[in-house]
Amino acid sequence: MSGRVLIAPDKFKGSLSASEVAEAVAGGVRRVRPAADIRCLPVADGGEGTVQAAVACGWRRVPVLVGGPLGAPLHTEFAIDGDTALVELASASGLQQLPAGTSAPLTSSSAGTGELIRAALDAGARTVVLGVGGSACTDGGAGMLGALGAGVLDASGRVLPPGGGSLSDVSTVELAGLDPRLADTTVILASDVDNPLLGPRGAARVYGPQKGASPEDVQALQAGLGSWSDAVSRAGGRDTADSAGAGAAGGVGYAALAVLGATQRPGVDVVLELVRFRDALDGARLVVTGEGAVDEQTVHGKAPAGVARCARESGVPVVAVAGQCSLPRARLSEAGFDAAYVLAELEQDPQRCLRDAARLLDRLGAALAHDWLPEAEGVTEVLAADS
């Protein structure tokens, strides 16, 4: 049986990027089947690593200096292909951009994400894909809109301090100053979060504690987001506070839906389209995907599940590689995976798994090649999208 081996993993968080995972697995496959036709196609789900996946597929990286979650200068980037730009919130306003050991649930801002969007418009983008996930902020997207020209003012007409902790003081939102190019720009909110902005499943109550918010902080953020949505509605924004996805990224989803006119789509579906995954799947004999932990969250909208779904629809076997896997075999099969290869089966020490992930993934690549690829093959070209 001939055909390509398509290696399309997400990152192993805290250890390796998606490109590094793909190359490590490919190295193991090549050791066992040197003539195998391999293509590495890193993927993501709209969160951290999405821009890297696009760049590995040939998109152009555009460096930008923005303000981080607490306003400190931050070197980051977006990706662009033609007039479509991919903006990753996590790279500007993400938890990983805070100083080590710091949590700032009341003062972290999404302003840097707005600066990235503005830079994308400067580069000629007319479609902006906004990938959200891993945010440090719960500011309802006020910082993002402020960076795009909106006024967020208190009763005295002063600009509010950054962060969700000040939103209870919002009195007026001025949208007339928004960058006029936004009127002719299509915005796609790439997110799998279906939470509304407010209430028991809202941004503050569900995600605030993950960002270091105390119970008192959560109450303050919840009240502030309520005031914020009222002010946006008075300014003419769409009534989307109850919409699925409004609670994404601390309410950045709300601002994108209510003010930027965004359309929400599942993040993994958007990314797989952007990297032309279905084109790469044509002619494949085996797909390898995975992420650091394959668990119930994986099957609910994470990148490996999207890869597995597409592969199954095309009748191509798909195996997962993971640091650890908590899904039983039957659940793996339901999600579209034919098998899983796990670092923890080679190394029981979690710290060594993190430290030696590339070496262990090489071994998993060799194991899956032995199991899934017949030994006799013709010599074919080795391809690497992320070279």
Summarize the structure.
The protein has 387 residues and is an alpha/beta fold. The chain is 34% helix and 18% strand. The protein folds into two domains: 137 residues, 3-Layer(aba) Sandwich (Rossmann fold), CATH 3.40.50.10350; 219 residues, Glycerate kinase, domain 2.
Order of helices and strands: EHEHEEEHHEHEEEHHHEHHEHHEHEHH
Mean pLDDT: 93
* Helical content (DSSP H or I, runs of 4+): 25-40%
Low-confidence stretches: 377-387
| Overall form | elongated
> End-to-end span in angstroms?
27 Å
So how many helices?
15
Give the number of DSSP strands: 13
**CATH class assignment of the largest domain:** Alpha Beta
Secondary-structure content class? alpha/beta
How many separate structural domains? 2
CATH superfamily of the largest domain: Glycerate kinase, domain 2
Rounded to an integer in angstroms, the radius of gyration calculated over CA atoms is 22 Å
EC number: 2.7.1.-
GO molecular function, one term: glycerate kinase activity
Enzyme class: transferase
Pfam family, one: Gly_kinase
3D structure, described in words:
The protein is of the alpha/beta class. It has two domains: 4-43 and 276-372, Rossmann fold (3-Layer(aba) Sandwich), CATH 3.40.50.10350; 50-268, Glycerate kinase, domain 2 (Alpha-Beta Complex). It has helices at residues 18-32, 50-56, 90-93, 111-122, 142-147, 203-207, 215-234, 252-258, 267-274, 277-281, 296-299, 303-313, 329-334, 350-355, 357-372; strands spanning 4-7, 38-40, 60-67, 73-81, 84-88, 127-131, 151-153, 172-174, 186-190, 263-265, 284-294, 318-325, 339-342. It has a six-stranded mixed β-sheet, with helices on both faces. Strands 2-1-11-12-13 form a five-stranded parallel β-sheet. β1 (4-7), α1 and β2 (38-40) form a beta-alpha-beta unit. The longest helix is centred in the middle third of the chain and has 20 residues, at 215-234. The chain is elongated and about 75 Å long. This is Glycerate kinase.
